[in-house]
Amino acid sequence: MENDKPKARFAIGDLVRCQYVLYQFYYPNYSDEDEESFYYGIIVNVDVAEYEDWTKEVTYLVYCTDGPCRFFVEEELAKLS
């Protein structure tokens, strides 16, 4: 059986800057486009989403500097360290 899971670009322990990508067709009522809200944190878990409508997407659990853990996908992260 072939392992066709995608390879993660980031690893556990990486310091990252995160920003949710809120597409208008999913979130029609979102905040002002000029307002940029970033989160900073350390990746504590890496997984591959295998849902019916969302397959083979690498997801990251990030422990943010403001306290909570949040989930992000690769396009929402930038490595700082």
Helix and strand topology:
Layout (H helix, E strand, L loop, with lengths): L14 E4 L20 E12 L4 E10 L4 E5 L3 E3 L2
Antiparallel strand pairs: 1-2, 1-5, 2-3, 3-4
Shape: globular
Poorly predicted runs: none
Biggest pleated sheet: 5 strands, antiparallel
Number of extended strands:
5
SS-derived structural category? mainly beta
Approximately how much helix is present in the residues? under 10%
Rg estimate, integer Å: 14 Å
Which sequence of strands runs across the widest sheet? 4-3-2-1-5
Q: What does this protein structure show overall?
A:
The protein has 81 residues and is an all-beta fold. It is built from no helices and 5 strands. The protein has strands at residues 15-18, 39-50, 55-64, 69-73, 77-79. It has a 5-stranded antiparallel β-sheet with strand order 4-3-2-1-5, with no helix packed on it. A hairpin with a 4-residue loop joins strand 2 (39-50) and strand 3. The model has no long low-confidence stretch (mean pLDDT 83).
Could you list some keywords that capture this structure?
single chain, 81 residues, mainly beta, 5-stranded antiparallel β-sheet, 42% strand, globular
Quick take:
The protein has 81 residues and is mainly β.
